Amino acid sequence: MAPSLSEHAIAILHANDRGGYTVPTKGLYPYQWNWDSAFAALGFAAFDRNRAWREIETLFEGQWDDGMVPHIIFRNHDPSYFPGPDVWQSDTVPQTSGHSQPPVAATVMRWLVETGDRDDDKRAHDLFERLLAWHDWWHRYRDPDGTGLVGIVHPWESGRDNCPDWDIGMNRITVPDDLGEYHRRDTDWVDPSERPTKITYDRYLTIVKFGRECGWDHEKITRDGPFLMADPCVQFVLMRADRDLLKLAERFEHGRAMKMIREWIARDFDGAQAMWSDEARGFVAVDLRNGGYKSTAITNASMLAWYAGAGTREQRDEMADQARAIFDICQFAFPSWDPRHDSFESRRYWRGPVWNMMNWMIASGLDMNGHRDLAMRLRHDCRKLVAQSGFFEYFDPLTGEGLGGPEFTWTAAIHLALEHEFGAAAAA
Fold first, then answer.
1. Which residues are catalytic?
2. Burial of residue 403 (number of CB atoms within 10 Å: 0-12, 13-18, 19+)
3. What gap in Å lies between CA 399 and CA 389, rounded to an integer?
4. Is the predicted pLDDT of residue 4 greater than 60, yes or no?
5. Cα separation of 67 and 403, whole Å?
6. Is the CB of residue 202 less than 8 Å from the CB of residue 179?
7. Phi-psi region for residue 97, left (φ > 0), alpha (ψ -120 to 50) or beta?
C-alpha cells in the first residue's frame, strides 16, 4: 500500500533532517534557512514536539551579536550552493549570510507554548531574550528613524526573492565592473526558465558586495546601501510576530520587554499605511531609497494584511474584493503576483507561482477577520496541489504543476499543519 500524504510529508522532514536542523530540499538548498526552519518546526510538532523545538533552537545558534538571526546558516560546506560562505564573508561562527528573513519564529513559538506543557514554556522562556533581541534588531536597523515601516536591504531578505515588487529598486542598481565571474548553482538543479535571470543575479551579488565591503555594518547598509525597500511580507509578518512576542512577554511577566514591544506595536499600524496604494487598491512594496515609488500590483504578501491586523476596515474590504477577483482567474490560489498584470509569469520564481506556506499565513488572517470562505479555499488549494503534484517548493497557479525543488520541507510541514488543524495563535 502506498504511504498516505501525511506519511510522505513526515518522511520528507526526516529525509531533510541534518541533525537538529533541516535543509529545505536536497541539492538545491543544502543549508539551514531562517523562515524555512520556523515552518519546519510547525510540521515537526505534528509528531515530535522535541524535534520542533530543536529546529528553532538551532536557528538561534546562528544569531549575531547585534541580535540579527541571518537568513542562511552555513553549517557544512557544500559546493553545490552559490553564493556560499566564501562570498558572504560574515566572519561569524557558524558562518552565515549577512542579512535576515521574515521573522516567523515568534508566531510559531507562541503556538507551541499555548498548545503545550511546562517543557514548552521552559524552552520558550530560555529563547525569549534572543527572540526579543532579533525583533529589536529589525526595529533598530531596518527602521532607524522609528517610522513604524521597516525596510529590507536585499530581495533575499524578503524571502520573496524574485518578485516583481523589487524591480523598482533593482533596476536602479549599477553592476560594478569588478563584480567578477561566477557560476550559479540553482540552474544546475532547476530549469532556468523558472529561476531569476542573469542580470537579476548580478544585481543580487552587487548588494552582497556592498555589505561585505562595509563589514556588514547594518546601519551603513540601511542608510547607504544600493537597495532599500519596504516589503509587505516582512512588515506584516513582523507586525504579527510583535503581537505574538508581546503575549510571550506577558506570560513570562517580562516588564521591560512588554514596554518595548508595545512601543513597536503602536508605530506598526501607521507605518504599514505608507504601503497602501490607491492605484493598486492594496498594500504594495515601496522603494525607500529612490523617491518612494510603489509597486503596481497585488501579491500574496499584500494578502497578509489580515494576518498582521493592518489597514482600515475599508482597506480590508477592498483587499477581500481583490482576493475574490484573483481567485476567479486562478485554478489555484494565491499567486505571488497579480495574474491581471503584464509582469505575471505563472512558472517563474515568485513572479506568479503559489507558495503553500504563504497560503497558511494568509488563511490564518482571513479566518480571524471573518472571511472563512476565502480561508477555506486557500487551505483546500494547498491540499489539492500536493495531492495532484507532490511536495514541490511552489506551484503553477493556472495548472497546479509542481515547480522548483522537490520533496520540499516547508510544503511538507504546512501539509501536516493543515492535516492536524494547526493554525497560528490568535492575534491579540
1. 161, 393
2. buried
3. 10
4. yes
5. 34
6. yes
7. beta
Beta bridge partners of 354: 335, 395
**Architecture of the domain delimited by 5-67+102-152+230-288+297-419:** Alpha/alpha barrel (1.50)
Over residues 320-338, mean pLDDT: 97
* Residue 26, all three cell numbers: 536536497
Tell me which residue of 295, 304, 359 sits closest to 327, measured CA to CA.
359
The arithmetic mean of pLDDT across residues 132-145, rounded, is 98
CA distance 45 to 299: 29
d(CA 111, CA 81): 33
- Within 10 angstroms of residue 406's Cβ, the number of other Cβ atoms is 19
**pLDDT digits over 349-402, tens only?**
999 999 999 999 999 999 999 999 999 999 999 999 999 999 999 999 999 999
Q: How many residues does the chain have?
A: 428
CA distances from residue 35 to 272, 342, 363 in whole angstroms, order as listed: 21, 30, 18
pLDDT at residue 427, as a whole number: 44
For residue 279, report the phi and psi dihedrals to the nearest 5 degrees.
-65, -50
